[in-house]
Automatic annotation (TrEMBL):
Coiled coil: none annotated. Keywords: Metal-binding, Zinc, Zinc-finger. It holds the Pfam family MULE. PANTHER family: OS02G0192200 PROTEIN, POLYPROTEIN, PUTATIVE-RELATED. It comes from Aegilops tauschii subsp. strangulata. It comes from the Eukaryota. SUPFAM superfamilies: CAD & PB1 domains. One of its GO terms (molecular function) is zinc ion binding. This is SWIM-type domain-containing protein.
Length: 720
């Protein structure tokens, strides 16, 4: 394994195309061959690629590849673990294609790629066809005529000044800029031009009061992005975007270059379009128009899935989706356990996600269903549970875990009458901490929290009562509160459901890692981003499990081994044969525990709670020459894990949504009229730069050409 290597073909400069079935093909560009060794770090991998590609700077490039026999999903290589997996997956392949893709404009080629300007700037300059630019800008040359010119207000003056600057190709800065006066000067150091406008004292008209000097700056040297601001781009393209919702950033950049002489890169055009869309449509209105289409595409590409969009009063909506691969995996491979969580995606202020998540044989999260709603209300949770009940092929004996809020205790028992329902342990512990007496020292508080944890994980009633008495000795009020919360919802000693050692899940953290946290996604893109990550997660875990040789999953094997080590010091003191049952044994471990092999029970109850045989049971298996693996819960077996990930989520290749027709939305009961979204409390945060171009430059040593350090800290010895 340490000496394994594969032949990689580096593909650079080509273009991906996708057919109707979602299969991707790569064409054009150039190819280079190199060896990739299994022991390499990601840093060494990048260094070798750079050397192979004539010392190409890779700070703005990403590395992707296809899994064997799958050309629908590109897998990323971004760390040591990803690189190791790639080598393992292609161990039997003759060659492996690695695509070196530029992070900026990796899906479309910018219309200004051949410009001599920096990639992240906008330029006011000449165009290939100066006459076309003159036709658009000719009328702007006289938007500012001189002293005495009157405007409706400062905004109109600023708009006219902006057009005037574009027509005459100069840049300016505001010296004063408020509701009563605007003073502007040219940014060129040697240029004396200056203009001042303010309200007149007589009739309060906004008038140009003074114009000083004329421009002496050289317009041919003007290179800046100040005139092509995001808001200005949005104002120019807004009406065209209203008529053509699929107006692409590449086309926007081309049109502004041709019509105004402004050279924009892809990201600037994209941000201008984003602002224009927000001005034209509210996020809820966009969602109402797009979700019926997205639901139909889910049905078409992933048969057997469940998707529902429902209109509400006030033109609101809610959306539910459970992909067929998730439903199949939950039914055939996961333990019957579902965590109900509300997932807040920070950049998306308008929606929340309600999720039902199971866990696989390794204890990793396995999302089953998601819903997009406007808030975490009891009504929305009730609707979500109804959709979930209709989706599940096995709606019977399921254990639910939640925080119990928003009426979940009542709704779960109403919609799933044969189910069990317990607390999310992490939430319950945090709730307990709020009840601690403020006068207690931190040491006492920590001890009380440890007593609670011991009570939660106690498998026997006498152990539970012992730790509850310890809490009661410190505070009767706290003990009474614990009893009021119904210990049968949180203590292993009393809980009737089957958690098999799983008390909480981190689905919120998982989803948060999938969603970009620097800008807000439209709801369809939000859902499709989650779908793409689910698709990659399922495939990666399935391929990983194909390398397992043991009967149990790795984590279950480790737990079983820990119990086997404990069993070495135990002895089976007798076999109970009085009642004719030769499969009941007594094991001495300080106390005497009774093990019944037929019913898979031990009086310590750890076997029942965890699904893994306890050390007492394993001591019996050693004496009776039986395999402990055969007595583990089926949900920890390798074949059940593989069944969890047996089905794939198929791509939805055309997520660029077509214009929604009034007929489609009205047929669903959705009104395509604007929806008033509730304004968020506090000052709105400014959106940062597009994360696709916010790439931090890696430090590179000028001596050894390695990354991550400089010449001063280089440890490579000098050669003489």
């Amino acid at each position: 394994m340490g000496s394994r290597q594969i032949v990689a073909v580096l593909q650079l400069g080509g273009v991906f195309t996708t057919d109707d079935d979602g299969h991707m093909t790569y064409s054009g560009g150039e190819a280079h061959a190199m060896l990739v060794k299994s022991g390499w770090t990601f840093k060494a991998f990048k260094h070798e690629i750079s050397s192979t590609l004539n010392n190409l700077k890779l700070d703005s490039y990403a590395f992707k590849y296809f899994l064997p026999k799958n050309n629908k999903t590109l897998i990323s290589i971004s760390n040591d673990k990803d690189l190791k997996r790639m080598v393992e997956f292609h161990a039997d392949s003759e060659t492996t294609d690695i695509y070196v893709i530029k992070k900026v404009d990796n899906r479309v080629k910018s219309s200004v790629a051949d410009s001599s300007a920096p990639a992240d700037s906008a330029i006011v300059g000449t165009t290939p066809d100066g006459s076309k630019r003159q036709k658009i800008c000719a009328s702007w040359e006289n938007t500012i005529t001189g002293v005495g010119q009157v405007f409706e207000g400062p905004k109109e003056f600023r708009d006219a000044l902006h057009k005037y600057a574009i027509a005459h190709r100069f840049h300016y800065r505001f010296v004063k800029n408020d509701s009563s006066r605007v003073t502007v000067e040219c940014t060129d150091e040697g240029c004396p031009w200056r203009i001042h406008a303010s309200k007149s004292s007589a009739n309060q008209e906004f008038m140009i009061k003074k114009v000083v000097g004329s421009h002496t700056c050289e317009s041919e040297t003007v290179k800046s992005n100040r005139l092509a601001s995001q808001k200005w781009v949005a104002s120019v393209i807004k009406e065209k975007l209203r008529d053509s919702p699929n107006y692409r950033p590449r086309d926007i950049a081309n049109d502004l270059q041709r019509e105004y002489g402004l050279s924009l890169n892809y990201s600037q055009a994209w941000r201008g379009k984003l602002i224009a869309r927000k001005e034209l449509y509210s996020p809820h209105e966009e969602a109402c128009n797009q979700l019926p289409w997205f639901r139909d595409r889910i049905f078409a590409t992933n048969p057997g899935s469940m998707a529902t969009v429902e209109a509400l009063e006030g033109s609101k909506f809610r959306f539910f989706v459970a992909f067929h691969a998730s439903l199949h995996g939950f039914e055939n491979g996961c333990r019957p356990l579902l965590f109900l969580d509300v997932i807040t995606v920070k950049p998306n202020k308008h929606w929340k996600l309600l999720g039902a998540t199971s866990v696989d044989g390794e204890g990793d999260v396995f999302p089953v269903a998601l819903s997009v709603v406007d808030d975490e209300s009891q009504e929305n949770w009730h609707w979500f549970l109804e959709q979930l009940q209709a989706s599940l092929p096995m709606p019977g004996d399921i254990t639910f875990i939640s925080n119990g809020r928003s009426g979940l205790w009542d709704d779960v028992s109403l919609i799933f009458p044969d189910s069990y329902h317990g607390y999310n342990v992490n939430f319950f512990i945090e709730e307990f901490k709020t009840k601690l007496d403020d006068s207690w020292s931190e040491e006492v508080k920590d001890i009380m929290v440890e007593h609670l944890k011991d009570a939660i994980y106690s498998c026997r009633v006498d152990e539970f009562n012992h730790y509850l008495d310890l809490i009661k000795a410190e505070s009767d009020k706290l003990a009474e509160w614990l009893l009021e919360t119904k210990p049968e919802r949180w203590s292993d000693a009393l809980f009737k459901g089957s958690r098999l050692g799983q008390y909480t899940c981190n689905i919120s953290e998982t989803i948060a890692e999938w969603i970009p946290n620097r800008y807000e996604l439209p709801v369809v893109q939000l859902l499709d981003t989650i779908r793409c990550n689910l698709m990659e997660m399922i495939y990666t875990r399935r391929e990983s499990s194909n390398t397992w040789s043991e009967v149990l999953t790795p984590s279950a094997n480790q737990k079983l081994q820990e119990e086997m080590n404990k069993a070495l010091s135990l002895s089976v003191v007798c076999s109970t044969e009085n009642d004719g049952n030769n499969n009941v044994f007594e094991v001495c471990d300080g106390s005497v525990y009774t093990v019944n092999i037929d019913t898979w029970e031990c009086t310590c109850r750890k076997w029942h709670v965890s699904g893994i045989p306890c050390c007492h049971a394993i001591a019996v298996f050693e004496q009776t020459d039986q395999n402990p693996v055969e007595y583990c819960s089926k949900y920890f077996r390798r074949d059940y894990y593989r069944m969890t990930y047996a089905m794939s989520i198929n791509p939805i290749p055309d997520v660029i949504v077509p214009p929604a027709s009034t007929d489609v939305t009205q047929s669903m009961g959705l009104q395509p009229c604007p929806i008033l979204a509730r304004r968020q409390v506090g000052r709105p945060k400014e959106k940062p730069a597009d994360p696709r171009i916010a790439i931090k430059r890696a430090v590179r040593c000028s001596r050894c050409k390695g990354y991550g350090h400089n010449k001063a800290t280089c440890k490579v010895p000098l050669t003489t």
